[in-house]
């Protein structure tokens, strides 16, 4: 099935140069003269790399046929992440190069979605927000404005900025898009 660049949407997977790519972000740009251009940020599902690419809005692509399976994160050992299919109990593994920044949001038994292309696991899709525990944070500054933030370390090792009132041991909600504080749990 052919897909025009002008019909792109976030999460769409298409074949570009023989590899499956997923659209992360896109923006239609209409210059004063000429055809509309589509500026995209795309992730190569085979290599895990991201690139910004521009396409003519009428450029056609083949859809990348991917399969998704629900799985649980089991554990990490020597920078290899192990996942268990919830239906067949089959184990899958992905290297840290494919997990990338998502490693900071994976705790044992975290429900995720594995993405397959031609029978091979290519990527992992995690929830938009996760609940994590603060392990370490600087003390609150007395008299500081309520909008002021401080450094905190989460149980997965991620360092983020949190409001002054957050204390060690508290559970918070973290956005997996950029690793930012999204509220108390």
Using brief descriptors, characterize the structure shown.
185 residues; 1 helix; single chain; mainly beta; SH3 type barrels; 55% strand
Provide an overview of this structure.
The protein is mostly beta strands and 185 residues long. The protein folds into three domains: 62 residues, SH3 type barrels (Roll), CATH 2.30.30; 60 residues, OB fold (Dihydrolipoamide Acetyltransferase, E2P), CATH 2.40.50.140; 56 residues, Nucleic acid-binding proteins (OB fold (Dihydrolipoamide Acetyltransferase, E2P)), CATH 2.40.50.140. The longest helix is centred in the middle third of the chain and has 4 residues.
Q: What profile does the largest beta sheet have?
A: 6 strands, antiparallel
Q: What's the CATH class label of the largest domain?
A: Mainly Beta
Number of β-strand runs: 16
Widest sheet: strand order?
1-6-2-3-4-5
Which class do the helix and strand fractions yield?
Answer: mainly beta
Compute the number of helices: 1
Order of helices and strands: EEEEEEEEEHEEEEEEE
Domains counted in the coordinates: how many?
Answer: 3
First-residue to last-residue Cα separation: 43 Å
Write the topology of this structure.
Layout: E1 2-4, E2 13-16, E3 19-29, E4 37-44, E5 50-56, E6 60-63, E7 66-77, E8 80-85, E9 91-95, H1 96-99, E10 111-117, E11 120-125, E12 129-137, E13 149-154, E14 159-163, E15 171-175, E16 181-184
Antiparallel strand pairs: 1-6, 2-3, 2-6, 3-4, 4-5, 7-8, 7-10, 8-9, 10-11, 12-13, 12-15, 13-14, 15-16
Concise overview:
With 185 residues, the protein is mainly β.
């Amino acid at each position: 099935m052919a897909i025009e660049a002008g019909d792109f949407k976030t999460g769409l997977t298409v074949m570009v140069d023989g590899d499956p790519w997923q659209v992360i972000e896109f923006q239609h740009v209409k210059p004063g003269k000429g055809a509309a251009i589509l500026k995209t940020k795309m992730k190569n599902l085979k290599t895990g790399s991201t690139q910004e690419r521009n396409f003519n809005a009428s450029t056609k692509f083949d859809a990348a046929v991917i399969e998704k399976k629900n799985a649980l994160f089991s554990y990490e050992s020597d920078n290899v992440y192990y996942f268990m299919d919830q239906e067949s109990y089959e184990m899958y593994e992905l290297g840290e190069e494919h997990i990338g920044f998502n490693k900071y949001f994976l705790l044992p038994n975290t429900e995720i979605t594995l993405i397959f292309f031609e029978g091979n696991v290519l990527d992992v899709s995690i929830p938009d927000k996760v609940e994590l525990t603060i392990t370490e944070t600087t003390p609150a500054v007395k008299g500081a404005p309520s909008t002021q933030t401080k450094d905190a370390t989460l149980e997965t090792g991620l360092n983020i900025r949190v409001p002054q009132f957050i204390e060690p041991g508290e559970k918070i909600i973290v956005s997996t898009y950029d690793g930012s504080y999204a509220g108390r749990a």
